[in-house]
């Protein structure tokens, strides 16, 4: 993964990990725990976490974006690797929540170049433990398509991260078709992480206790985004797309049958019908989901609605939403050994081209 430019070199020594929401991480030194190995039916299993966050400070500085947790630098990842070892995570696939969707074209181009080249170099130098999702300035769709192509062909990325919306615009908006077309052409996995339903916040509906802007707002945005991609025909237009939706796909997998029912109940108000029943898109190999649903029963239900081949583990590191996703998969009833292996890392390794 070639990297050029003094700015990128400087950025590599100052790259920080951040959570979905603000979190403090103790820097107190502690003995490193023994690396946990996952074994199924006598065979060592490679585990891959597709939902883990980071940020490149030098890229954020291009638009003066504040850092949420600048203490977790990539030149000292001992805290992160210790957590991975304790949870039995062999590889983290790093992603960056989009904060640049309102940036003008020139600034967005510079930001993404620094970001992708820095992250690409880091992952290449630490291939055993880290991989990454590239980033793109989706508010400039043609530029975003170019950025994805460069990230794949020149930097070696096999996936790209996007938000659940783009500065208030739906991902299903036709103006983003050039981006989706390029992702389909290159065969990359798209990791979709919500930015929250910010349009609801001024109303006050998410105020009060419970951090509802995140607790409800994040999975709600994912639900809205996936529903538009289905009903507006984006998934039909680009049948080769592969999208992994964070947080178990939000609320959609738990209530997707209502999306089937609306076609029967209000056919005149649905618009052009999707080629399949909405529930079919959850199982047909276009949509994938991480395991951040918290309990074995919730994961069992998600798998029942989507299929075991559509699920990959995610931890949301460094924010402690979960304790150990490996145990969640191991403790979920009704799975075969092969299905557990696929969820723990086999599917992610296949989609992202990771060594077995």
Question: Could you give a short description of this structure?
Answer:
By secondary structure, the chain is α/β, with parallel strands linked by helices. It is built from 15 helices and ten strands. Helices cover 40% and strands 11% of the residues.
Explain what the structure shows:
With 356 residues, this protein is α/β, with parallel strands linked by helices. It has one domain (6-18, 37-351): TIM Barrel (Alpha-Beta Barrel). Helix content is 40%, strand content 11%. The protein has 15 helices and 10 strands. The protein has helices spanning 6-12, 57-60, 78-87, 105-125, 141-153, 177-186, 212-215, 217-231, 234-237, 246-249, 252-265, 267-270, 296-306, 325-331, 337-352; strands spanning 38-40, 43-45, 48-53, 91-95, 130-132, 159-163, 189-193, 242-245, 287-290, 311-312. The strands form 3 sheets. Strands 6-7-8-9-10 form a 5-stranded parallel beta sheet, sandwiched between helices. A 3-stranded parallel beta sheet has the order 3-4-5. Helix 1 crosses helix 4.
**Could you say what the CATH topology is called?**
TIM Barrel
CATH first level? Alpha Beta
Amount of beta strand: 5-15%
Indicate how many domains the architecture comprises: 1
Q: Determine the number of helices (DSSP H or I, runs of at least 4 residues).
A: 15
Largest sheet properties? 5 strands, parallel
Order of helices and strands: HEEEHHEHEHEHEHHHEHHHEHEHH
- Structural class per helix/strand content? alpha/beta
Catalogue the unreliable spans: 1-14, 17-28
| DSSP E strands, number | 10
Return Rg in Å: 20 Å
Reported CATH architecture: Alpha-Beta Barrel
Approximate helicity band: 40-55%
Shape by Cα distribution: globular
Distance between the termini: 20 Å
The CATH superfamily name is: Metal-dependent hydrolases
**What's the rounded overall pLDDT mean?**
90
> Strand order, biggest sheet?
6-7-8-9-10
């Amino acid at each position: 993964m070639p990297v050029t430019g003094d700015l990128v070199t400087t950025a590599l020594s100052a790259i920080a990990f951040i959570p979905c929401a603000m979190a403090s991480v103790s820097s107190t030194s502690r003995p490193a725990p023994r690396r946990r190995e996952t074994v199924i039916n006598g065979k060592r299993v490679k585990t891959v976490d597709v939902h883990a966050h980071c940020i490149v400070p030098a890229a954020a500085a291009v638009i003066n974006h504040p850092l949420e947790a600048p203490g977790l630098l990539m030149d000292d990842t001992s805290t992160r690797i210790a957590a991975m070892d304790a949870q039995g995570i062999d590889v983290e696939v790093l992603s960056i929540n989009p904060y640049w969707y309102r940036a003008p074209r020139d600034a967005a181009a510079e930001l993404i170049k620094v970001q992708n080249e820095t992250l690409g170099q880091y992952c290449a130098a630490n291939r055993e433990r880290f991989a990454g999702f590239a980033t793109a300035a989706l508010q400039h769709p043609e530029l975003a398509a170019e950025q994805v192509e460069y990230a794949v062909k020149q930097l070696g990325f096999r996936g790209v991260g996007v938000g659940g919306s783009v500065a208030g615009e739906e991902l299903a908006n036709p103006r983003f078709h050039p981006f989706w077309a390029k992702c389909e052409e290159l065969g990359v996995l798209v990791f979709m992480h919500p930015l929250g339903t910010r349009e609801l916040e001024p109303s006050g509906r998410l105020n009060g206790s419970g951090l509802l802007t995140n607790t409800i707002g994040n999975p709600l945005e994912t639900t809205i985004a996936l529903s538009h991609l289905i009903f507006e025909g984006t998934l039909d237009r680009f049948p080769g797309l592969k999208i992994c939706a964070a947080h178990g796909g939000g609320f959609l997998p738990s209530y997707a049958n209502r999306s089937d029912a609306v076609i029967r109940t209000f056919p005149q108000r649905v618009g052009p019908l999707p080629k399949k029943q909405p529930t079919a898109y959850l199982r047909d190999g276009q949509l994938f989901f991480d395991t951040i649903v918290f309990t074995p029963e919730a994961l069992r239900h998600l798998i029942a609605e989507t299929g075991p081949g559509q699920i990959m583990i995610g931890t949301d590191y460094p924010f402690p939403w979960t304790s150990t996703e490996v145990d969640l998969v191991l403790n979920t009833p009704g799975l075969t050994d092969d299905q557990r292996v696929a969820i723990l890392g086999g599917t992610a390794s296949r989609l992202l081209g990771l060594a077995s």
